[in-house]
């Protein structure tokens, strides 16, 4: 039973990773970063469906694949991973989608935006204008993705799909 649940979680993580990578084709540049709102939607979905550590793993794998495929930059790592962790922890504590979306926006937009500064400076050879230079573009990206996630999860909850997914995980 435990192995079956682990296999389902791994399969869901693979689907969410693929969605994040494919979704990175829908991106737009803002202040030197590539805004990919689908990644942030995936972070919230991972938090709701799998939990914080799976979310961080999905964000890492998606960022790695995006970089290997030249679809993203190194700044994808701190932005997506910090947001996924905070989002997952908040959802795990309160089981509230709105709070998880807010945590994703704060984690990626503020904390991830601040963490991107040293990544850009040390690993990308960039000379960012200041410590907060990536906060606004990261907030734009994560706000769009968090809104998408909130709408999608609301629809999935109302249709009963999420209840079926959770029920299958306990069988």
Task: Please give the structural blueprint.
Layout: H1 2-23, E1 28-30, E2 33-35, H2 37-49, H3 52-68, H4 76-94, H5 97-123, H6 135-159, H7 161-170
Antiparallel strand pairs: 1-2
Helix pairs in contact: 1-2, 1-3, 2-3, 2-4, 2-5, 2-6, 3-4, 4-5, 5-6
Summarize the structure.
With about 170 residues, this protein is mainly alpha-helical. The chain contains seven helices and two strands.
**β content, as a range?**
under 5%
- Principal-axis shape equals globular
Helix content: over 70%
Put simply, the count of helices is 7
Order of helices and strands: HEEHHHHHH
Question: What would you note in describing this structure?
Answer:
The longest helix is centred in the middle third of the chain and has 27 residues. It contains 7 helices and 2 strands. 78% of the residues lie in helices and 4% in strands. A hairpin with a 2-residue loop joins strand 1 and strand 2. The model has no long low-confidence stretch (mean pLDDT 91). The chain has a two-stranded antiparallel sheet. Helix 1 packs across helix 3 and helix 4 runs antiparallel to helix 5. With 171 residues, it is mostly helical. It is globular and about 50 Å long.
């Amino acid at each position: 039973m435990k192995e079956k649940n682990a296999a389902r979680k791994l399969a869901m993580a693979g689907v969410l990773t693929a969605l994040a990578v494919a979704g990175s084709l829908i991106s737009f540049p803002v202040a030197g970063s590539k805004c990919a709102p689908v990644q942030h939607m995936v972070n919230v979905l991972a938090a709701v469906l799998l939990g914080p550590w799976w979310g961080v793993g999905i964000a890492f794998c998606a960022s790695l694949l995006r970089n290997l495929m030249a679809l993203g930059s190194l700044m994808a790592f701190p932005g997506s991973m910090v947001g996924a962790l905070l989002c997952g922890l908040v959802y795990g504590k309160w089981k509230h989608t709105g709070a998880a979306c807010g945590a994703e926006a704060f984690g990626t937009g503020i904390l991830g935006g601040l963490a991107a500064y040293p990544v850009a400076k040390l690993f990308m050879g960039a000379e960012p204008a200041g410590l907060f230079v990536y906060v606004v573009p990261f907030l734009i990206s994560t706000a769009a993705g968090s809104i998408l996630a909130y709408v999608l999860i609301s629809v999935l909850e109302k249709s009963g799909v999420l209840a079926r997914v959770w029920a299958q995980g306990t069988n």
